[in-house]
């Protein structure tokens, strides 16, 4: 009976370590700098849209210490010369960072800094797929920070920068 318990504990330990190794491997594959190539948002019950236009600019940086930073802006932004233009610049910016954790094809970021206080302190859940140097990220259904009051699912495609 004792031998059976020891074996069961060993199996659990090996399975846990294998899970940690898989998560570490995924984190290692994500580590580095990624350039945004497309971003679309599907409004639930509505149409798909490119919230920052057809050529948004963005960078995601996954650090080896388990932190991630996302910055996305609309293309063709110009320096502001008025309060109204400053507000427009803020509406065409999405940025947040935080500690991330990987579970299978899902990563969760605990947001610690955000350009929109709606996100600060929240968990951002994302699903990802790696295809060589392409990273495809899909959001869970969530309340939009870009379209207030709407529920959305976002899809982002990133290219690894070397």
UniProtKB/TrEMBL annotation:
InterPro entries referenced in this protein's UniProt entry, alphabetically: Lipocalin-like
The entry's keywords: Signal
Domain Lipocalin-like: 32-160
Signal peptide residues on this chain, from the entry's feature table: 1-23
Any Pfam family: Lipocalin_5
Name assigned to this protein: Lipocalin-like protein
């Amino acid at each position: 009976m004792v031998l059976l318990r020891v074996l069961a504990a060993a199996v659990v330990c090996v399975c846990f370590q294998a899970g940690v190794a898989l998560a570490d491997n995924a984190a290692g594959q994500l580590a580095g700098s990624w350039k945004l190539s497309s971003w679309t948002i599907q409004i639930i019950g509505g149409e798909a849209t490119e919230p920052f236009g057809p050529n948004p600019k963005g960078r995601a940086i996954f650090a080896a210490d388990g932190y991630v930073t996302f910055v996305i802006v609309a293309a063709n932004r110009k320096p502001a010369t008025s309060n109204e233009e400053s507000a427009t610049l803020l509406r065409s910016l999405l940025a947040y960072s935080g500690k991330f954790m990987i579970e299978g094809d899902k990563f969760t970021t605990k947001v610690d800094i955000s350009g929109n206080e709606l996100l600060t302190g929240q968990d951002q859940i994302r699903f990802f797929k790696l295809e060589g140097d392409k990273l495809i990220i899909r959001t869970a259904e969530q309340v939009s920070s870009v379209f207030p009051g709407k529920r959305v699912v976002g899809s982002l495609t990133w290219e690894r920068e070397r």
